[in-house]
Amino acid sequence: MVDVDTNFDRIRRGVWAGPNAAKPFIEWNDLSRVLTDLITWSRQTESREKFDEVMYNSLKSLLKAANADVKNKVANLSKLTQRDVDTVTVTIIATANLVRLLRNSVVNVPKNQFLQVKTGLLDTILDSVCFYNDVGTKCHRMKHKIPYALTYTPLCIEVIRAALQLTSNLCVGNHAVQGAVWARLYPSIFTTLLNGIDKQVKNYVCSILFHCTAWNGSQPLEDLMSSGRDIVRIGVGLCQAPNCLEWAQLFVEGLICAERFMSVYEMCEDSTLVFTLLEVLTEKVKSNQNLTKKQLFGEIESAVPVTTFLFLAKKFAKNRQHVVDLATGKELPEGEITVRILQLLASVTGLFDYFSRITNNTPFLECVVKVLNEINQIKPIRFDQPKGEVPPDSTFAIRRELIRVITNMCCKNKAHQDKVRLLGGVHTILNHCVVDQQNPYLPQWSIVSLRMLMENNPENQDIIRNLQSQKVVNNDAMKQLGIEVTKMDGDKPRVAVVHPEDEK
C-alpha cells in the first residue's frame, strides 16, 4: 500500500496529469481515493506546510482537466451512455475532493494563500464555481426528461460548497483577492447562488459578501449600495428566524457597522424585511462588546454608529401617530414597525457610555413625552379597569416603552428633567403608577422614572410635595382578596379587612 506522503509526491510530480503522466487519461476513481486520504492528512499544520508552487500548479492542472472532462460529457446529456454517466459521477466527486484539499491547505498558512493566488488557482476555482453552477442548473432543469441527470445536481453543489469555502478563506484581509472575486461573481453569480436551494452555499456566499464589503471605502461596498438591492434584500431575508444563517447575520451587521444602515433600511422599507433588519440591529447592540465579534469583523469597528439610532429617532418622530393609534386601540398593521423602533430605542437610550448622542437628543425626548401625554389624554389609565385579554404584540406595553425612554434620558440630566416637567410629563407618569394588565411592569418603570425626574431637582420634587389626595377607588380584585382602602382623619389612607358577612 502506497503511503500518503508518496501519493503527495506523485501528484506533485504530475503522475496523474501533465508531461510525467503515467497514462494518457486520468483514472478519476483512483485519484479520488488518494485525495480522500490527503484531505485527512492535510488537517495537520506540518502537512499543510509541505505545499509549494509546484504542487499547486499540478493541482491546478488536475482541476482544469476534470472540468474539461465533465464539460465534454455533459454537452449533450441525452446521448450519454451508462459508462459516460458513471465517468461523469466519479469525475465530479474527484473535483470536489481536489477543491477540499485546496481548501484545507490554506488554513492558517499565509504562504499557501499567496501561492494559490500567484499560480492562478483562484481563477480556476472561480471558473469551477461558475461552471458547476451552470451544470447543476442544467441538470435540474432536465431532470424530468433525463432522470439520471438529477444525480449530478447534489454533486455539483458539493464542488460549489468547497470552492466557496476556499474563496472565502482567500478573501480574508486580502483586498486584491476581494476585488478579483467581486469582479467575477457580482452581481449575477452571487444572486443566482443566493436564490438556490442549498443553505450551506448561501451561507458561504454571505461569508464572501461579508469579507468583501465589511470595510468603509471598498469598491464592493459602493457597488452593493448603488446596484445590489436584490442581494441586500436576500441577505436580510436569510437572517429571519428560525433559519437564520450565521454569515448572513454577520454580512448585514457589517453593513450596519459600515454606516450603511439607512441605505439598507430604505431597500427593505416596503416589506416585512424591516422587522428582520431591526432584529439584526438589536442583536448587534446586545453583543456590542463581544470580543469574538470584534475579531471576526477584523478591520472594521464593531460598534454600531450612533447615526443609526438618530435616523431611527427621526423615523419614530415622523410616524408618531402610529404609536398613538395603536396604544389607544386602533388597528394599524403598518404601525408595528414604529413600535419595534420604539422598543429598540428604549434599550439603546439606556447605554449611556456608548450612545450619548441619542441619550442627549432633546427633540427626541420632547416627541416621546408628547406622545405619552396624547395617549393618556385619549385613553387614560384606569385604576379599576376590568381584567381582559392581553392585546396583540403590536400594542403590547407601548406606554411602558415610552416611559423607559423618558427614564433613561432623564438619568442625571437636569435639562431633560426640566423639559419633562415643562411638557406636563411628570403628572402623566404619575397617572401610570397603577397596575395595568395590558402593560406589565408599567408601575415599576413609572416609579423608577419618577425617581430619575426627582433626583437633585427641587422644582420636580415640589410637584410631588404639593399633591393632594382626591378619592379612594377600590376594585373587584381587592374585594376578592377581602380588603379595601378607606380614608382616615387627615386624608390618610387605611387598609381594612372586609368580612363577607359584613356585606350581607
Textual characterization of the structure:
The protein is mainly α. It is 65% helix and 2% strand. The chain contains 27 helices and two strands. Strand 1 and strand 2 (493-497) form a beta hairpin. Helix 19 packs parallel to helix 22.
Defining key terms:
2% strand, 504 residues
Summarize the structure.
This protein has 504 residues and is an all-alpha fold.
Indicate the structural class. Answer: mainly alpha
Strand content: under 5%
State the end-to-end CA separation.
101 Å
Instruction: Give the number of DSSP strands.
Output: 2
Strand ordering within the main sheet: 1-2
Shape: elongated
Q: What topology does this entry show?
A:
Layout lengths: L3 H9 L15 H14 L3 H4 L4 H22 L7 H24 L4 H9 L2 H21 L10 H20 L3 H11 L2 H7 L4 H15 L5 H9 L1 H9 L8 H23 L4 H14 L4 H7 L8 H13 L1 H8 L8 H13 L7 H4 L2 H17 L19 H13 L3 H9 L2 H6 L11 H13 L3 H8 L10 H5 L2 E5 L5 E5 L7
Antiparallel strand pairs: 1-2
Helix pairs in contact: 2-5, 4-5, 4-7, 5-8, 7-8, 8-11, 11-14, 12-13, 13-14, 14-15, 15-19, 17-19, 18-21, 19-22, 21-22, 22-25
